[in-house]
Amino acid sequence: MIHTALCELCGIRTPVFQGGMAHVSDARLAAAVTNAGGLGIISAMSRDGAYVREQIRLARELTNGPIGVNVMMMSPFVGDVAAVIAEEKVEVVTTGAGDPSSYIENWKNAGCRVVPVIPSAALAKRMERAGADAVVAEGGESGGHIGELSTMPLVPQVVDAVSIPVLAAGGIGDGRGVAAALMLGAAGVQIGTRFLVAKECGIHPHYKELVLKASDTSTIVTGRRLGHPVRSLKTPYSRSYAKQEYTDISNEDLEQLGVGSLRKAAVDGNEKEGCYIAGQIAGMVNREQTAAEIIEEIMAETEQVLAKAANFIR
Ligand code: TUI
After folding, report:
1. 126 lines ligand 1 (CB under 6 A)
2. Pocket lining: 97 vs ligand 1, CB cutoff 6 Å
3. Which among 127, 106, 116, 137 is positioned nearest to 69, based on CA atoms?
């Protein structure tokens, strides 16, 4: 068994968070991951407090374990959602795409553990000062909105910068990745892409098919011109977006191309206009499994890899 400070902090058996993915991470997936010993996380995406409350209560019916909610700081409902999280006494709140400092005190007073996702050591320090209990250091190998650094240089620099536990995210899809993250000083990992094909994940079958077919070079980063780079699968949509970024199209029109695109992929399976977010490990994801099978396989492999590592020492 792999046990770290993160397990104690969050009341989980295994130090794995399931990433909060917009239009993907709902109560059903989150409860399955929590029941498997990790931390299941519901994505608040850009939905309002009523939706988030409903999802939290649904997850509570499906598991007795801790659950997390991920808040997208760019959401127009961020204040409303933040209040619901405190009222519902969610065990863990993670945040992305912005600075959650002004909400941390309220969440902590409600007993929530606060774990911001950050792309740099400077932000990790700021979060620690603001009262965060841990941080997720997310490298640019991950799917979705990404920072500048890759996981390998980011994680040890964040570990050196703060005293709170650090989770590694971005490019981790199996036990080798988890073992590597632990060697970089992480106390756990956050995994998104591999859970896209969990049996309990309710995304459109076409999305799962694209992930299962993906290879190592199947993802692309778009949106740099607008200041919010996003990694997703290469599809007619993302290739066309990437091309248009280098034309004289206006920023407004470019922005418009992205509106609703995550939903069109995950809910509608629309290949023409959907943005199929996935990380660089998509090429390693080759079969649909239950969340429990995914976690058990990854952690068994982590133990094997770590046990063998001592053989390198002479
Ligand atoms: O947030 C994510 N991944 C996401 S959010 C998302 S929805 C979206 N779609 C289009 C544009 C923007 C968002 C899809 N995927 N990962 C965690 C993450 N957080 N990555 C980077 C950051 C981040 C960036 C800046 C965290 C904090 C931050 O702070 C800047 C500041 O100083 O306020």
Report:
1. no
2. yes
3. 116
Q: Decide if 130 contacts 97 (C-beta within 8 A).
A: no
- Listed in sequence order, the residues at least 6 apart from 294 whose beta carbon sits closer than 8 Å to its beta carbon are 36, 194, 195, 198
Please spell the DSSP secondary structure of 115-147, one letter per residue. EEEESSHHHHHHHHHTT-S-EEEE-TTSSEE--
Q: Quote the CATH superfamily of domain 5-201+288-307.
A: Aldolase class I (3.20.20.70)
pLDDT tens by residue, 157-187: 999 999 999 999 999 999 999 999 999 999 9
Residue ID of nearest Cα to ligand 1 atom 28: 98
- Whether the CA torsion 53, 59, 61, 64 is positive or negative: it is negative
Q: Which atom of ligand 1 is nearest to the CA of 136?
A: 17
Residue nearest to atom 7 of ligand 1 (CA): 145
CA 70 → CA 103, 160, 269, distances in Å?
Answer: 13, 25, 23
Query: Is the pTM for the entire model greater than 0.85?
Result: yes
The tally of CA atoms less than 13 A away on the side-chain side of residue 2 is 29
